[in-house]
Amino acid sequence: MARIAYDHTDAAAFASTRHLGDDGAGQWRAAVKRVLDPRPGMRLLDLGAGTGSWSRAFSDWFPGIDVTAVEPSPAMRERSVHQPVLAGDAAPSVGQVEAAFAGEGFATVSLEQVPQITAVSLRQAADGLRREAHTPLQLITDEEYSAGVERLRHAALTDTGPVIDALDLLVLRRDGSSTHE
């Protein structure tokens, strides 16, 4: 089961604040190309596809690959910019994905964090923060959230650099296959 249900309100917040932007796309495209060597006919599985922006980007970047998006939330699937998007039962951890696919002969080839700028400044991040768009922020108390936002706004008064986030890129490959098969 996903950590939160991502109802229509959550999904709308996610769609408005957490889509893959053009700024981070270049780093992701380079990382995927480096570890996966995408080519026509290759299958790519996007687990926890959310609004489908990653799936659409993969399809746009690498014509001819077969992208399958899987998302447990019906509200997120309704907003998906990539079709088809299949229903899933959970938003699994890296370990759960590795274990699930190991029985079918898949092994981890690469797990790396890809950095991306999510806001040009802490002030912009604070101004655009929507609690319902971030799973971890929904799992803390209202008091913890308020205290964190206060610390963020205070830090934004003096910190002028960009906000850099990192997301995991996990690549599994069936035993015996290579990036060129």
Automatic annotation (TrEMBL):
The keyword Methyltransferase applies. Keywords: Methyltransferase, Transferase. One of its GO terms (biological process) is methylation. InterPro entries: SAM-dependent_MTases_sf (IPR029063). It holds the Pfam family Methyltransf_23. The keyword Kinase does not apply. One of its GO terms (molecular function) is methyltransferase activity. This is SAM-dependent methyltransferase. It comes from Actinoplanes campanulatus.
